[in-house]
Structures are given as structure tokens and as C-alpha cells.
Amino acid sequence: MTDGKDRVAATAGDDGDAANKRYGLRLRKFIDIVVEDPFSAMLFRGAIADISPTGMRAMVDQYLPVGSKYTITMKRSPFLRMRGLVRWIRPSANETFQIGVQFIEVAPEDAKRLSTFIEIEQQRLTNG
């Protein structure tokens, strides 16, 4: 689910609900992920479409209800594993869904690694 596109955008959230919008730097970086439902032990594949220090927009092939919590594992750098809360969901192409996820229960060292990763990628993309 990667296409090699990397971009930086400073935009608001994608949904129409202002309370759910996130502002600030987002890195448009496609990173394959595994989404784990801790209650059913089900695993779903997906891809991050953009990411910020506080959340992400991802493409998944399963309907994930708003308000549900999942463990998300990034399959490549920065190889983080974090808990996330689904804030919004909308249908997308080819029977997939876009979801907005707010990061919750993030260890301080993981938050630092994510922020550093976003900063390094931003510099790489703006200088390269």
C-alpha cells in the first residue's frame, strides 16, 4: 500500500467536524501499518497517508468504528507501536476506508522518536 509519495503539509484535519481537526505540521508519508484489535486479536493491514505528532490519517480495508481503540504498528521507519483512537471514518476507493486516528497512551520516548522522524523527513523533503 505504498506509492513512494512523501510530502509535507501544514493543514487542518480532513473531516468536517472542527472539534476533530488537528492543526500543525503533517508529513504525507506512506508507511505500511498493522492495526490490531486487542479484544478480538484481529489484525488488519493498512497504510498511513499522513502523520503528525498527535495523530494520522490512514487507509484501511476494514470498517473501524469511531471511538474504538487499536494498537498500530508501523512496518518501517520509525517502527513505532502506539495506541490510537478512531476519530472519524469515511469510505474511499476500492472498498477501503480513510480513518482519522488520534494517538493516545504514547510513551514519551516514542513521542520524541515520532517528532524527530517528522522533522528529519520535513528537512529532507524541503532541501531535496
TrEMBL record:
Name of this protein: PilZ domain-containing protein
Gene3D superfamilies documented for this protein: predicted glycosyltransferase like domains (2.40.10.220)
Boundaries of every PilZ domain copy: 28-118
GO molecular function per UniProt: cyclic-di-GMP binding
Source organism: mine drainage metagenome
InterPro entries, sorted: PilZ_domain
